[in-house]
Automatic annotation (TrEMBL):
<dbReference type="GO" id="GO:0035336">
    <property type="term" value="P:long-chain fatty-acyl-CoA metabolic process"/>
</dbReference>
<protein>
    <recommendedName>
        <fullName>Fatty acyl-CoA reductase</fullName>
        <ecNumber>1.2.1.84</ecNumber>
    </recommendedName>
</protein>
<keyword id="KW-0521">NADP</keyword>
<dbReference type="GO" id="GO:0005777">
    <property type="term" value="C:peroxisome"/>
</dbReference>
<feature type="domain" description="Fatty acyl-CoA reductase C-terminal">
    <location>
        <begin position="359"/>
        <end position="451"/>
    </location>
</feature>
<dbReference type="GO" id="GO:0080019">
    <property type="term" value="F:alcohol-forming very long-chain fatty acyl-CoA reductase activity"/>
</dbReference>
<dbReference type="InterPro" id="IPR033640">
    <property type="entry name" value="FAR_C"/>
</dbReference>
<dbReference type="InterPro" id="IPR026055">
    <property type="entry name" value="FAR"/>
</dbReference>
<keyword id="KW-1133">Transmembrane helix</keyword>
<dbReference type="InterPro" id="IPR013120">
    <property type="entry name" value="FAR_NAD-bd"/>
</dbReference>
<dbReference type="GO" id="GO:0016020">
    <property type="term" value="C:membrane"/>
</dbReference>
<keyword id="KW-0444">Lipid biosynthesis</keyword>
<dbReference type="Pfam" id="PF07993">
    <property type="entry name" value="NAD_binding_4"/>
</dbReference>
<dbReference type="Pfam" id="PF03015">
    <property type="entry name" value="Sterile"/>
</dbReference>
<dbReference type="GO" id="GO:0102965">
    <property type="term" value="F:alcohol-forming long-chain fatty acyl-CoA reductase activity"/>
</dbReference>
<comment type="similarity">
    <text>Belongs to the fatty acyl-CoA reductase family.</text>
</comment>
<feature type="transmembrane region" description="Helical">
    <location>
        <begin position="464"/>
        <end position="486"/>
    </location>
</feature>
């Protein structure tokens, strides 16, 4: 198919019925919003949503469309929101817990599926990870295989699904144990035994998340469907859409940045010279949509794998990320900080744990002790315990380096019709990390911490006095240390001087 004969992405999606799982998540919201904004002629978008915490699916959708990703649609194209249709269901249940009428509707109408529902926590029990990320994928595939008009099935995986591979190629990888056997195992083995078996089952994988996602990939790879598998790396705040700096999760770098900016995290085990492969969520979503378009045009016999990664095209090291983050969080401080933020990163485990003991644990126990003596409720040891646990989970990824082949996203960029190159921007070389990080910091402040930009002047005022207090404390500690050294040395100096006088 020549470039001129290719339909644009918007044209290809015209009159199509789309099914999306995981639409209530971080990337899911961006995906739904982008389709409605940039593919206005899409006929219907079905969102598979389960009841959560007693809130029914329809109410959850009403809440979601009031959020930032849908602001542009609410203000300029509210009629497009009517294209959204909630389908009550649950990917973890065989048959997706669909009503007969909804099942028939999806089978007859849907031609594009985006499967993004996942449990992205690193520390969940194996049973939970397999149930959502592997069995959930199997259940969605089972429905997709019944669809009469299916043209494109896109599975959203992760670039860290094969952590045992130094170089991640854009292809499928065999699993040491079949997904079907693992799914059967978690159903028949009790939780205690399963927990004991988990390390053996994981093999080279660092956690249940990576393991379960690798199994999900294998299911899609063997499905026989016209499919694409998108593997985003570390997904961070948006570059442009739905709003610059939009982010809603404290996972990954966002949590580290906020913790450091509030003075809670003062040491991170990380190699400052390693490249951080992070990609803005809007670029990742554009690549995912473009992949579905490509699959629909090519009807491949085997899935098309695309590593949605930066892969050195616009390199930034962890050390550079720290400096950019420090620069912009000091200029745009958060409210409710614990202390003036200092600290850094090191790849020396001994140095790191000494810093954790001196800068995390000792201050936490001291402050909680003061709280107890003054009749207040202690809080900091609990916070530091959670922080330490979270840091142990992510440090696997901060002290290792991988090479991600990304010819797939380059080919997607090149294959787009001219009109789509700007609409579905995917060029990771197009932005500068320094101003982007400022936008990221302001976005985390606004969307994650819910701090209005109007509070910045007051926060800067408070921040200044924390800086003064930090300087006083540092000077006091230096003076105390100097006095301590002096008291140790002065008797020796006095004795040596006296002996010298007597000898003369």
């Amino acid at each position: 198919m020549t470039m001129k004969s290719k339909p644009t992405i918007g044209e290809w999606f015209k009159n199509r019925h789309v099914l999306i799982t995981g639409a209530t998540g971080f990337m899911g919201k961006v995906l739904v919003s982008k389709l409605l904004v940039s593919c206005p002629d899409v006929e219907k978008i079905y969102l598979l949503v389960r009841e959560k915490k007693g809130i029914d699916p329809q109410t959850r959708l009403q809440s979601i469309v009031q959020q930032e990703p849908f602001r542009q649609l609410r203000e300029h194209h509210p009629e497009r929101l009517k294209k959204l249709s909630v389908i009550p269901g649950d990917v973890t249940i065989e048959g997706l817990d669909l009503s007969p009428s909804n099942r028939d509707c999806l089978i007859q109408q849907v031609s594009v599926v985006f499967h993004g529902a996942a449990n992205v926590k690193f520390d969940v029990p194996l049973k939970d990870a397999i149930t959502m990320n592997t069995k959930g994928t199997a259940n969605v595939l089972a429905l997709a295989k019944q669809m009469n008009n299916l043209k494109s099935f896109v599975h959203i995986s992760t670039a860290f699904s094969q952590c045992g591979e130094k170089v991640l190629e854009e292809r499928g990888y065999p699993t040491p144990i079949s997904p079907e056997n693992v799914m059967t195992l978690v159903d028949i083995v009790d939780n205690d035994l399963l927990e004991a078996l988990t390390p053996k089952l994981l093999g080279v994988q660092p956690n249940t998340y990576a393991f379960s996602k690798s199994l999900g990939e294998d299911l899609v790879n063997r499905s026989g469907l016209p499919a694409g598998i998108a593997r985003p790396s570390i997904v961070i705040a948006s570059w442009k859409e739905p709003a610059p700096g939009w982010i809603e999760s404290m996972n990954g770098p966002t949590g580290l940045m906020i913790g450091a900016a509030k003075g809670v995290i003062r040491s991170v085990l990380c190699d400052p010279n390693f490249l951080i492969d992070a990609i803005p969520c809007d670029i990742a979503v554009n690549a995912i949509i473009a992949l579905s378009w490509r699959v629909g045009l090519e009807n491949p016999e085997k899935p098309i794998f695309v590593n949605v990664t930066e892969s050195g095209e616009n390199p930034m090291t962890w050390g550079e990320a720290l400096e950019y983050g420090r620069k912009h969080t000091l200029s745009n401080p958060f409210s409710g900080i614990l202390w003036y933020p200092r600290g850094g990163i090191t790849n020396n485990k001994l140095v790191h744990w000494i810093c954790v003991f001196l800068l995390h644990l000792l201050p936490a126990y001291f402050i909680d002790g003061v709280c107890l003596l003054t009749g207040n409720k202690p809080f900091l040891v609990k916070i530091q315990s959670r922080v330490s646990w979270g840091m142990r989970l992510v440090q696997y990824y901060t002290i290792k380096a991988w090479i991600f082949r990304n010819e797939g996203i380059k080919e997607l960029r090149q294959s787009l019709p001219v009109v789509d190159k700007e609409t579905f921007f995917m060029d990771t070389k197009a932005y500068d990390w320094d101003p982007y990080m400022k936008t990221y910091v302001l976005g985390a402040r606004k969307y994650v911490l819910r701090e209005d930009p109007s509070t910045l002047p007051h926060c800067r005022y408070i921040f200044f006095w924390y800086w003064v207090a930090d300087g006083i404390v540092r000077f006091g500690l230096l003076a105390l240390f100097s006095w301590f050294i002096y008291t140790l040395i002065s008797p020796w100096l006095f004795t040596k001087t006296l002996v010298g006088v007597l000898e003369n």
